[in-house]
Amino acid sequence: MTDRAAEVREAVAEAHRAQWALVLSATVRLARDLDLAEECVQEAYAQALAAWARDGIPDNPAAWLVTTAKRRALDAIRREQVFRAKLPQLLVPDEAGAPDAAGGHPPAPDFIDDPADYIPDDRLRLVFTCCHPALARDAQVALTLRLVCGVGTGDIAQASLVSEATMAARVTRAKKKITAARIPFRVPQGRDLPERLDAVLSVIHLLYTTGHTAPSGDQLLRADLADRALHLSRMLHALMPDEPEVSGLLALLLLTDARRATRTDAQGRLLRLAEQDRTRWDRTAITEGRNLILRGMRLGRPGRYLLQAAIAALHADAPRYEDTDWPQIVSLYDRLRQVWPSPVVALNRAVALAMAAGPGTGLREVEALESDPRLAGYHYLPAIKADLLHRLGRHAEAATAYRAALDLTDNAAERKYLAGRLREVTGP
Amino acid sequence: MTQYAILLYTPAPADMADMPVEEQEAHMRHAAEAEDLGGHVVTGFALQPSTTATSVRADTVTDGPFIEAKEVIAGFYILEAQDLDHALQIAKRNPATWRGGVEIRPLLG
Prior knowledge:
The complex is a heterodimer of chains A (428) and B (109). By secondary structure, chain A is mainly alpha-helical. Chain A contains 19 helices and no strands. Chain A has helices spanning 2-31, 34-55, 61-79, 81-85, 123-130, 137-148, 153-160, 164-180, 193-212, 223-239, 244-257, 283-298, 304-317, 326-339, 343-357, 359-369, 380-391, 395-408, 412-426. In chain A, α15 (343-357) runs antiparallel to α16. Chain B is of the alpha+beta class and 109 residues long. A 4-stranded antiparallel sheet of chain B has the order 2-5-1-6. The longest helix of chain B is centred in the first third of the chain and has 16 residues, at 21-36. Chain B starts with a strand and ends with a strand. The mean pLDDT of chain B is 96. At the A-B interface, loops of A face α2 of B.
């Protein structure tokens, strides 16, 4: 009996992880209200615990959840019909005649016996609505976590380092704007798509980097956020397999994540790329990332994610740090700078250049970037400068730069690393 | 269809006399352009320069616009569009965006 209860709990949890976006987006289409849809989906998951324990786990849990959530939504709509008629509803354009960028709603595939089991896949609509440019970036991130990943407001607040009340207000405000301003529940098409897709990719990337390097606190890795971002990236790739930058982002995340286990030592100390145990890098993830890059490169001129992934792949391919193909990395950074003229890219290029052409050459580039106001307060700049000065044997100047970097860093693991480097140049 | 107020902002004092001729001409064409794109301009107004504005806050009357800023409201129109994306598509083409910008606000109800 307990085995069975545990089995059901696990099945519900798995359906939550894997199917939340599918179930919610299908329910939104009927409910035409994000709050109502969310409430009904939550109730459906709660109901599943008892129902699946009693009747067994259904063959198609997602279909069961959608049917249950939709039934609840219908009940609510009937109950509140008069009231709802006065309220603006989420706009769900019917695009039967106009296919979505990803091919629109295909008819129910033949292999599904019962047409009732077929769920229209509205996940892309949900993602693009959450990441609409009319919403602020922090609202896009919050809505994506909440509506696409099904993460609770409390957890989102914790990950974003704001209070739960602030986060709840942010989510409510964003949902209200979607309805009041009539942000359509639709996948953008044609000329709008590249810009809109870029916003989606930025949100997922931001989620990953937030999880990967928490801006403050003791834990370098908020594994859950990084996992969510990977899951989202994978889902997006499954839905838009022919978009090169979608492949690029997934490749970048996989290749970065392949090093996850080796980024810190047993004491939680941050390890540099040169110090990491490369035998423990996840080879399956690296191979998958590399294949995505090869395929993406064939689809057209590579964008920023594909190029960043290609750089990460070169690191992953080197058996030892000193075997890294630095000249090739520098040339990829040159191409990256063309499509994405960011001072952070220029800074990373300087690091690669220091490896390819010597620390003095790299240092000159870094010093040229010091006057860029966009890098003021960016703690990696003094940290990189300090390492280059250190390698040139200019210890006093290196110490000054390490102190400057420490002043700008909140993350405990990164602070520990910098303090250790500072001791190396100042002596005991 | 949803109705949006499109608020047009141009550099203060938003005096029509300062507006380049080609910008004025583009404004004249904008309503027809909106129709071509499937929208509809319900009504629209251009305003006298902000130097002619008078503001009241609580019971104090002051000379000038309500908020001091580099750009001020030069006019507004009511646009009927299918959704925000559609309204954006049309509003982006308004010539106020050349030297200033536009704000898109859905009407209540």
